[in-house]
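Sequence only, no structure available. Ideas?
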Amino acid sequence: MSARTSSGAVEAVMGRIFNIMALGLVFTGIASYITLHSKPILYFAVNNNMLLVIAHLALVFFISLKINSISKTTALYSFLGYSAMTGLVFSPIFLVYTHTSVVSAFFISAGMFGGMALWGLTTKQDLTTLGSLCVMGLWGVILASLVNFFMQSTAMALIISYAGVGVFIGLTAWDVQKFKRMASAGMMTENFAILGALNLYLDFINLFLFILNIVGRRR
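Reply:
I predicted one. Tokens follow.
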């Protein structure tokens, strides 16, 4: 395989990853819209939120752990189902903020995500150290969030959100570079693309939620 062919194949895989991720976001948006405009579904989402969160987590673990042993069709449908469930789970949050705030947070997130993804694709710098620091930072954010679940401190929640933004913009660049390198090493299956899409989807969704908490105006 020539260098040019190899480069083209890697670009095709990365394009597939971003396309699948974008499709997941579309499913999330549709599911959220349907939930917010259907009282029975919204009632179900609000009153069974904890159960949905557990199912939500179980599904993402299933995809991550079984990605190499399930068919590409099952992997894709599982990812799209997870994306739709995300819209269902987080719809009650959108009731708290104004429509303008949600839209603003989305476009801010899209701009930041796009910039960091582009950096991850094009930089010659090894982002492994950055990725390791962001993973450690993520554990710090999770721990602080658990503590603040009991403290209910608005100031601490804001600090956590800023930290979360920093963590996930860093993870975005690292994940893009990581999957590009893995594709260059020959990992070019459809399931690999779906796993990459899932990782970047999670980066974007978490970035969006943290930004929404920072810039969002409550109703």
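DSSP finds eight helices and no strands in the chain.
Hope that gets you unstuck.
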